């Protein structure tokens, strides 16, 4: 038992030690905040109320939903995880959904197909068309993560016709991130009964405004990008600042958070349902590609 670390709050007035002076940093700075990567982003996005959620768009995507102080067991392919604990308050729990390939699909389009020379060019290419032309890209390169957990799946591009061009493929690549996020959100509602009212977003892909608008459309909720997009570092700073009294409480942290831009849904219900119905058909076609030995 002596080798097991002591469990402490994420933000703790009982500091765990002090820094020592090595290099340009000051000495004797208290160490009193510790959060996992995605949990820090949750705090950085000030998702302190039950039902608030954030999604981080990087190489993959990681969506966390605050479910309050009682853990919600998942029966629909998600993880039940600890979100954070502030001092001696009750811990806050989350449902978490992980998507393996989002930004990595843009990199694949650049490095493997050479359709773009820089990741930022995908939005320009995707805007050369009005829609996906009926093409859907399911990036199950090494299986599908939440909520499917299918290691036998492999990637497919479905719905191809002679009409489809590289602009449609670029659009399908971006839309894949939004569809996979909706898969997670639907599973979270089944587990928690919570209806998502808005989604806070961060990570490298949130600079892509076409993707953010489509994400809002396919979820039918506002999508909100903060002014400070490095929310993981910000969340760790919030935890430490709360511990030493730099911020007196969660309300002060909320006031420090600032919105950069919000996208609101513009798509009709009929179009939304049709897009997602074809996405699910494309997902079904990825299954059972790898056969048991």
What sequence of helices (H) and strands (E) makes up the elements? HEEEEHHEEHEHEHHEH
Approximate shape: globular
- How many beta strands in the DSSP annotation? 9
Compute the CA-based radius of gyration.
Answer: 21 Å
Numbering strands along the chain, what is their spatial order in the largest sheet?
3-4-2-1-7-8-9
Mean pLDDT: 94
How is this structure best described in words?
- With 293 residues, the protein is α+β, with helices and mostly antiparallel strands.
- It contains 8 helices and 9 strands.
- The chain has helices spanning 37-44, 103-111, 121-126, 166-192, 209-219, 231-244, 250-256, 269-284; strands at residues 53-57, 61-68, 79-84, 92-99, 136-138, 156-158, 199-202, 223-226, 259-263.
- The strands form 2 sheets. A 7-stranded mixed beta sheet has the order 3-4-2-1-7-8-9. Strands 5-6 form a two-stranded antiparallel ribbon.
- The radius of gyration is 21 Å and the shape is globular.
- The mean pLDDT is 94.
């Amino acid at each position: 038992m002596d080798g097991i670390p002591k469990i402490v709050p994420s933000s703790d007035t009982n500091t765990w030690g002090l820094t020592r002076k090595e290099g340009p940093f000051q000495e004797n700075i208290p160490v009193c905040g510790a959060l996992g990567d995605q949990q820090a982003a949750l705090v950085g996005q000030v998702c302190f109320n039950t039902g608030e959620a954030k999604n981080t768009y990087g190489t993959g995507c990681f969506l966390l939903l605050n479910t309050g102080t009682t853990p919600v067991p998942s029966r629909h392919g998600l993880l039940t995880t600890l979100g954070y604990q502030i001092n001696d308050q009750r811990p806050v729990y989350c449902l978490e959904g992980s998507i393996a390939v989002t930004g990595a699909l843009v990199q694949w389009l650049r490095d493997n197909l050479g359709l773009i020379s820089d990741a930022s060019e995908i939005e320009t290419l995707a805007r050369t068309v009005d829609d996906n032309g009926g093409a859907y890209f399911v990036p199950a390169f090494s299986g599908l993560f939440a909520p499917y957990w299918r290691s036998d799946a492999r990637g497919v591009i479905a719905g191809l016709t002679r009409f489809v061009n590289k602009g449609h493929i670029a659009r399908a690549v971006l839309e894949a991130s939004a569809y996979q996020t909706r898969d997670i959100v639907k599973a979270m509602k089944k587990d928690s009964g919570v209806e998502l009212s808005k989604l806070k977003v961060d990570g490298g892909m949130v600079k892509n405004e076409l993707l953010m608008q489509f994400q809002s459309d396919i979820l039918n909720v506002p999508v909100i990008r903060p002014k400070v997009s490095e929310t993981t570092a910000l969340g760790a700073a919030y935890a430490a600042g709360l511990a030493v009294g730099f911020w007196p409480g969660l309300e002060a942290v909320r006031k420090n958070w600032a919105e950069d831009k919000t996208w609101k849904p513009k798509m009709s219900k009929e179009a939304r349902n049709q897009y997602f119905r074809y996405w699910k058909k494309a997902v079904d076609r990825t299954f059972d590609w790898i056969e048991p030995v």
